[in-house]
Amino acid sequence: MNCFSQKLRRTSPMQGNSRNELVPSKPPRMNGWSWPPQAFQVVGWLVYSYLAIVSFGIYIPLLPLPWNHVVYALTGIAFIVHFFAHIAAATIDPADVSVKAKRSYSSPMALFDRTKQPHVIQDLHCYLCDVKVGPKVKHCGVCNKCVEDFDHHCKWLNTCVGGRNYWCFFVALCSALLGVLLLVVVILFIFIQHYLDPNSLRTAPQYDSMLGNGTWLVFLPLAPIKASSAGLLILAFITAMLSFTCTLLLGHLLCFHFYLFYKGISTYDYVKKQRQKEARNIEAGNLQDAKINSKAPQNQESSIDCEPALSHSSGTCKFDDKGPLTSRLSESICTEMENFKKSAEKENSFHYGTENPTNNNASRGNVY
Fold first, then answer.
1. Residue 312: how many CB atoms within 10 A of its CB?
2. Is there a contact between 4 and 330 (Cβ–Cβ < 8 Å)?
3. Which of 47, 86, 36, 90 is nearest to 249 (CA)?
4. CB within 8 A of 368, min separation 6: which ones?
5. Residues with Cβ < 8 Å from 100, sequence gap 6 or more?
6. CA atoms lying within 13 Å on the CB side of residue 18
7. How far apart, in whole angstroms, are the C-alpha atoms of residue 354 and residue 164?
């Protein structure tokens, strides 16, 4: 009997009639600087700071003239553009116009809980923000607000990427890729020249009194500090591996967004299509398994199938038993299950976000 193998749980509190007591709440996030910061956001700024220090303080000054001036200019432009584009993408509020006009970021708002309400946006109305929205608007569960032309929630920016800040995000992505590519090329050149002709890397005037020894200088020309050859190469290896990893990640992300440009879709549209495709494949596999199981011989003389799931609209109990005692016991158990399910459904019949939410038929409008 699988009636006892299923765990019964309530999806709403037992006490409390107020809607504010039944749902958690938190204020929506304004932008990427809203507290608390994401771990990826902190890591991103630490990597940016490290690469900027080792680029302009250690390795670019070792390049011979006039290449060091050229690389200074190109790398400097890439790092500066990325800095301001990153700041702009994280600072701009991507929320929908109606949300910005109505909502205060200091006041709490209900959180979206799919176990209590299946859709947060239906018929172009958001039940959490309580505003009318456009067809390309999505309510972000992390930022807890509706975002215009939603693309994705970026953990590196700690905010959503939408229509308002997408191009700042794209410029930051391109400039970051250009900067790490230049750094990879510089470090590879220094690696090769260090073994072929190290004197070609010691052209700064500060090396005139240090010819013939293995001492190197870093943070030229403002604050020269002595360093060993082994330390310089170890740090170069670590920087090269980090830069190469960043190049792969940024290159893959940039190619993905070029693919989205070609298809004319957003990241959210792509993810939604992939999930729908996986759901169809799973459904096709289940149908195939059902056909195989229907052909298998039924060897059990009696069986009981109870499905008292509280999230469904109705539970089902099927009996296929020839014994009168077992049949009466089964009917009694499943009747108790049905009564418990109906009482739980009465407790769970509440919605949050608006007073009168519409039904859950997805064919009536855009549903997210």
1. 11
2. no
3. 47
4. 119, 120, 121, 122, 138, 139
5. 93
6. 3
7. 27
Catalytic position from the list 154, 168, 246, 306:
154
What SS3 state is found at 52? helix
Residue showing tokens 């200088």: 217
Q: What is the pLDDT along the chain (368 residues), one digit of tens a residue?
A: 444 444 443 333 444 343 434 445 667 888 889 888 899 999 999 999 999 999 999 999 888 888 889 999 999 999 999 999 999 999 999 988 888 887 667 777 766 666 766 678 878 888 888 888 888 899 888 888 889 999 999 999 999 999 999 999 999 999 999 999 999 999 999 989 888 888 888 888 777 776 666 778 888 877 888 888 888 889 999 999 999 999 999 999 999 999 999 999 999 999 989 999 888 888 888 888 777 777 655 544 433 333 333 333 333 444 444 444 444 444 544 555 554 454 444 434 333 333 334 443 333 333 34
Query: Token pair of 180, please?
Result: 């790490």
- Residue at token pair 């190290």: 198
Known catalytic membership, residue 3: no
Q: At residue 108, what is the residue type? A: P
For residue 79, the one-letter residue type is: F
Around Cβ 170, how many Cβ atoms within 10 Å?
Answer: 17
Distances (CA, A) of 135 to 110, 229, 286, 364, 367: 22, 60, 33, 13, 9
For the chain, the residue count is: 368
